Amino acid sequence: LQECILSGIMSVNGKKVLHMDRNSYYGGESASITPLEDLYKRFNLPGTPPESMGRGRDWNVDLIPKFLMANGQLVKMLLYTEVTRYLDFKVIEGSFVYKGGKIYKVPSTEAEALASSLMGLFEKRRFRKFLVYVANFDENDPRTFEGVDPKKTTMRDVYKKFDLGQDVIDFTGHALALYRTDDYLDQPCQETINRIKLYSESLARYGKSPYLYPLYGLGELPQGFARLSAIYGGTYMLNKPIEEIVIENGKVVGVKSEGEVARCKQLICDPSYVSDRVTKVGQVIRVICILSHPIKNTNDANSCQIIIPQNQVNRKSDIYVCMISSAHNVAAQGKYIAIASTTVETADPEKEIKPALDLLEPIEQKFVSISDLFAPTDLGTESQVSQRRARVWGGEERGSTLNCCFSSQIFISRTYDATTHFETTCDDIKDIYKRMMGSEFDFEEMKRKKNDIYGEEEQQ
């Protein structure tokens, strides 16, 4: 998805884009697999899906579970690029949080907050005061700070100021601000306050929850941006094997495929294409579960998110569940897809994710994957003095010893983390954009560039 969004944005920016994919489908790791038979093959399950699963082609199963924040960065990218014209979205019906072995709806309105059994009566009043404070907080207006220094006061101190208890801190930090760990508590509060504001603003748009999900699955997103790239002159090639990334004097000059070299000045790719330029930073376990029933205690929602804060299950990182159903054209009638995910912390990942799976019982079929997380060691921009041979990735060493400054101009995306929204993915996209273009990614600028190319009249 990162590569598809960037190829769309670079095409709008007037760059010449060639997008190659070794797979026969769009989206790489963020694809939606259809028909269901293909999912069984992908996970090496014997036999074919039982007849009770309905028609195989009624299924579009995401490999990476994520929702879109209604007011978040990805929705802005979709709106500004008008990729929304290729997609239809549905609001996710509810967000739930796990406490003491049970799940509770995350209050989405003041009335729900007052009726919620997550908190006692006095706690509710203090929490409401806190939410009003966050809503009025404006980092450009010191009058709204009430003695808090957004760049110095820690979030722990802000919670203390409103006298909020541990359970409320847990669900505020993990279900509203969407942090995966508790490290944020001792960091300046500005980022957390902005995250809670994003949640509230996203919620205000549709009311049920702050999350959106595209009909037919997340695989529609990369296809939408690939279309955008094509409209602006980009070329897309599926089923294109990559033999080697050609490097001269430490800088990328092209990509070799089927005996030919496509020459380029810059290259964007995911970690699987450049294993020598990335480092492993962790692992994520994801379990795709097929159910014949909605999840218990969710009021029979046909879609929801459940967050299990790490404190509740004695872990360092949260466990997430995303559930969608036939209402989103991703499963056969009467079927539900629930995907549980978390960051791996021990040698027994399946045991770590058990609290989530217990909430989903009975499970008809499950597909377990454990993925390595990679981050680039080469950011593509640094000048490095190198004393080594010029190399061709995937081929033999060539050339003489060099002593030069270079920036490889290879820009590598990060692997998807365990979070169930796209905010971290969008941060990665903006980071790659900045390293490539030397300037911040600016939504307004993007709109202007489109007007320059097509004129405002034709877009109406």
Automatic annotation (TrEMBL):
Molecular function terms from GO: GTPase activator activity; Rab GDP-dissociation inhibitor activity
State where the protein is found. Cytoplasm; Golgi apparatus, trans-Golgi network; Membrane
Q: What's a GO cellular component annotated to this UniProt protein?
A: membrane
Q: Which UniProt keywords apply?
A: Acetylation, Cytoplasm, Golgi apparatus, GTPase activation, Membrane, Phosphoprotein
Q: What is its main location?
A: cytoplasm
What SUPFAM superfamilies does the record point to? FAD/NAD(P)-binding domain
GO BP: protein transport; small GTPase-mediated signal transduction; vesicle-mediated transport
Q: How does it sit in the membrane?
A: Peripheral membrane protein
Which Pfam families does the record match to this protein? GDI (PF00996)
Q: Which domain of life is it from?
A: Eukaryota
Query: Which spans are transmembrane here?
Result: none
What's its job?
Answer: GDP-dissociation inhibitor preventing the GDP to GTP exchange of most Rab proteins. By keeping these small GTPases in their inactive GDP-bound form regulates intracellular membrane trafficking. Negatively regulates protein transport to the cilium and ciliogenesis through the inhibition of RAB8A. Regulates the GDP/GTP exchange reaction of most RAB proteins by inhibiting the dissociation of GDP from them, and the subsequent binding of GTP.
Family assignment from sequence similarity: Belongs to the Rab GDI family.
PANTHER family reported for this sequence: RAB GDP DISSOCIATION INHIBITOR BETA, RAB GDP-DISSOCIATION INHIBITOR
Relate the assembly described in the record.
Interacts with RHOH. Interacts with the GDP-bound inactive forms of RAB3A, RAB3B, RAB3C, RAB5A, RAB5B, RAB5C, RAB8A, RAB8B, RAB10, RAB12, RAB35, and RAB43; binds RAB3D to a lesser extent. Interacts with DZIP1; this interaction negatively regulates the interaction of GDI2 with GDP-bound RAB8A.
The molecule here is called Rab GDP dissociation inhibitor
The species this protein was found in: Lophotis ruficrista
